[in-house]
Amino acid sequence: MTEEEMTKSLPITKAMVWKAYQKVKSNRGSAGVDQVSLSAFDEALEKNLYKIWNRLSSGSYFPPSVKEVEIPKKDGSTRKLGIPTVGDRIAQQVVKAYLEPRLEAIFHRDSYGYRPLRSAHDAVKAVRQNVHRHAWVVDMDIKGFFDSVDHDLLMKGLERHVDEGWILLYVRRWLEAPVLDTNGHLRVKEGSGTPQGGVISPLLANLFLHYALDEWLSRQYPAVSFVRYADDVILHCESEEQAKSVLQSVRLRLEACKLRLHEGKTQIVYCQDYRREKKHYKKKFDFLGFSFQPRPVRSKREGGGMFLGYGCAISTSSKKKILSDLRSTNFHRWSAGTIEDLSRILNPKLRGWVNYFGKFGRNELLRVFRVFHQRLVKWALNRYKSLKGSIKRAYTYLKQLQKGNPRLFYHWEKGYLNL
What we know:
It is a single chain. With 419 residues, this protein is α+β, with helices and mostly antiparallel strands. The protein has 16 helices and 11 strands. It has a 4-stranded mixed β-sheet, with no helix packed on it. A hairpin with a 5-residue loop joins strand 4 and strand 5. Helix 8 packs antiparallel against helix 9 and helix 14 crosses helix 15.
């Protein structure tokens, strides 16, 4: 530590700020209320990082307002996200990196969202395992969670693990930072809400739900398995009666913590498979972009036939979102470039879809790629005069292309060859 750093009252070094900057830069993101992008921030990097370190380490850092944007949701409504400035994201990352190992040590093993070395796939895998052991599911949705987090309750939980006053000071300031809404009005928070989109918000949200739900469930219902990814929660029960009882208790517990269930999106589901008697009950639920429901499964035994299992694959709403994304590109009308140009532009999207949704029930993705191939055919018809008017010749062209260059498109490379 330099002499200058030793004069500061708080244990924040320039190395911590530099590491936080590298993390924020790797995550990219847009400008906040100051309209300063990452590239603009880099133009005076040393000066900007020094200012953050100087203010953080002296206790004089105050976060600027948070820029609010609206993101469309699958149901047609919008989700409000808060975008801090680049400098504030770096400051938040400094405190998050300092605090996270301490909180990680107490978080529940069945909490997966926004945690190191844990992923959405890990959460989905845990639910897959649980539905084979438990016939009933409570699919929970917390209404407006990030807007409803009570500041005093959150700080009470934080104080159980934090003695440093400067951490409590900065977290309180971030919680109370005003929001610049989409109409240009400055909104002051009144004791609740943490912006979904802030760097430190997921860590604070996990701490809140650790005490509001995870630890409470473990004490009150030790026999009930659960999987939580941020505010998406799946409870696994042994019977309909247990599911109803647990749901009512959770409803009251959340109300005590100033949260509410979204009743229209919360449901009890029966996980019907070949081992379980038929019931006239909901048999499907969605979790993290996958649909869990009864599905035909081929036996792994030699000569085995098909049986009814209960598993997951890409959800209908996720398929619709992908197809909408494909339609919005209008790539079948791009007549100027080559097929190689097309692959360079589209492969990042294809890679993301395959790597996420192809993890479970990968054959369901074939339906998505069938539509993709139909659009490739349209592109070929528009691009090459020799194919014009003949869908059959266009398909033949693509099959030959696929055979000669199977790595041209990412999904071809991964075996989605359904032309």
